[in-house]
Specification:
Elements: H1 2-16, H2 24-31, H3 39-42, H4 47-53, H5 56-64, E1 70-77, E2 83-88, E3 97-99, E4 114-118, E5 121-125, E6 138-142, E7 147-150, E8 158-159, E9 162-166, E10 169-173, E11 176-177, E12 185-190, E13 195-200, E14 208-214, E15 217-224, E16 231-237, E17 242-245, H6 248-252, E18 258-261, E19 264-269, E20 275-280, E21 285-291, E22 302-306, E23 309-313, E24 319-323, E25 329-330, E26 333-334, E27 337-339, E28 347-355
Antiparallel strand pairs: 1-2, 1-28, 2-3, 4-5, 5-6, 6-7, 8-11, 9-10, 10-12, 12-13, 14-15, 15-16, 16-17, 18-19, 19-20, 20-21, 22-23, 23-24, 24-27, 25-26
Amino acid sequence: MEGGSERINQVEESRAQLLCGLPDDIALFCLARVPRKYHSVLKCVCRSWRDLVCSEEWYAYRSKHNLSETWIYALCRDKYEQICCYALDPALPRRCWKLIQGLPPRCLKRKGMGFEALGKKLYLLGGCGWSEDATDEAYCFDVSRSSWSEAASLSTARCYFACEVLDDKIYAIGGLGSKSSDPHSWDTFDPRRSVWESHSDTNVVPDVEDSIVFDGKIYIRCGASAVSSHVYAVLYEPSNGTWQHADADMASGWRGPAVVVDGALYVLDQSSGTRLMMWQKDKRDWVAVGRLSPLLTRPPCRLVAIGKRIFIIGKGLSTVVFDIEKTGNMEGVMVSSSIPRLNSEDDVISCKCLAL
């Protein structure tokens, strides 16, 4: 009896181990090096592997040891005026966009929603509809579990607002709300406590055109001011928690979607063709990096960056990839590669990157 019970204990212990005969820390060392594209396969092996791949421990380990792989997520609107979401693994040899299933039905028809990535989750925030006022509802998509769930509601119902991440917090800024004071407010979300906090400042404006995190500050490009036709921008200074007007020269050249690569600010000017511009902070001037072939880009486009590569994503998720380190042009046209578009005319609302 004693020997039999020993064998049972040994079997139970081996079942509990991630890899039979190996301590769990060694097993994690091995499994965490499996490429992200195979994580869905790992989850099918057994419950303990599934729980591991979906855990915070897995996410933290891969982040700590530089094993994370970044995918791009695009929030779009289809021909039926419903939102949809796609993912792209840029490391695949045959790169293609894949539809994410199961979006919350309540927000499919909403417009003006915030879209943000923080940790291993994507967030859909606020929004409004034809017969619906601005809402404070929030949803999140856990990329490791491939599942949607309700998230903590915004402090303030809002739509058509700026949404950025700074210091591991989500900022929902300005836009339109249900009260006159809402456009001059912003909310911050702390994922560790899962709560939103509300703030206000008269320099926060409702008319949000674009936003970016640059030099450790949040910049918002606003519409034309009431007294002039010039476009201007405001910035959030986290050291003292205040908003102030940004450099006028920088704002004047911010004429399209923006992205930061290696500390430098790039803007895609789509006003006359498609040109990539760079802000030279020391000279306070915008310079042209080059123009893109009209055969590849399908404006209006959005921008994201992974490392030194800028992904220019347009209608139908047509995607052009430009490597800053390999800057070159032929007769003024930038050398780039492209990813085939979908057989659709989906409009791209926002794009975010998430590493796992």
